[in-house]
Amino acid sequence: MSTPATTETGGVGKLNGLPRPELVKQLLACLDVPRWADEIADRRPFADTDEVYRAADAAAPGLTGEEIHQALAAHPRIGERASGADTSSSWSRSEQSGVDASDTELTRALREGNEEYERRFGHVYLVCASGRSGAELLEILRSRLDNDPETEMRIVADELRKIARLRLAKVIEG
């Protein structure tokens, strides 16, 4: 996913000027993994948006199983509205806006699919939901139930990176 470069006076300038604790707090809303946020913050100052994304991409491949599970704990089930007024909850509600909560058959199928997924893999089903309908998210969930745990963990790590990148764009633009 390509994002146009931003000059130092734009959103990247704001990131460069934030006190480190505030920058880390904003980065943790993108991916709740302190090491990831710290590694990005350590790479400041950023020349442009692409450099921020490169820093995020460089920190993400080394996510440990423990870090992935930590990040998963911060995500609500697909089809369930995140509660809370924090930034991450607000983004989650927006990202899952394609799930029609009034469709009782869909919400039932998602709930049952989530439960089956969690029994199989021991963690919440995660997918980058932005721009996808509830039916698409359910179809993806069902297709992933046949994966072995190792394959599924690789997919989850990739989905976390996608979500983090989308959210990072919001931090930059914010």
Can you tell me about this structure?
- It is a single chain.
- The protein is mainly α and 174 residues long.
- The protein has a domain of 98 residues: Orthogonal Bundle (UraD-like), CATH 1.10.3330.10.
- Helices cover 63% and strands 0% of the residues.
- The longest helix is centred in the C-terminal third of the chain and has 25 residues.
- The two termini are 19 Å apart.
How large is the share of residues in beta strands?
Answer: under 5%
Q: What is the terminal-to-terminal distance?
A: 19 Å
| Major sheet details | none
Average pLDDT reading: 89
Low-confidence spans: 1-9
Give the CATH H-level superfamily of the domain at 67-164: Oxo-4-hydroxy-4-carboxy-5-ureidoimidazoline decarboxylase
CATH class value of the domain at 67-164: Mainly Alpha
Percent helix range: 55-70%
Number of helices: 9
What is the name of the CATH architecture of the domain at 67-164? Orthogonal Bundle
**What is the H-and-E element order?**
HHHHHHHHH
The Rg value, from CA coordinates, equals 17 Å
Overall geometry? globular
In CATH, the topology of the domain at 67-164 is named UraD-like
What structural class should be given to the helix and strand makeup?
A: mainly alpha
Number of strands: 0
Keywords: Decarboxylase, Lyase, Purine metabolism
Pathway: Purine metabolism; urate degradation; (S)-allantoin from urate: step 3/3
Region (Disordered): 72-105
Domain Oxo-4-hydroxy-4-carboxy-5-ureidoimidazoline decarboxylase: 16-169
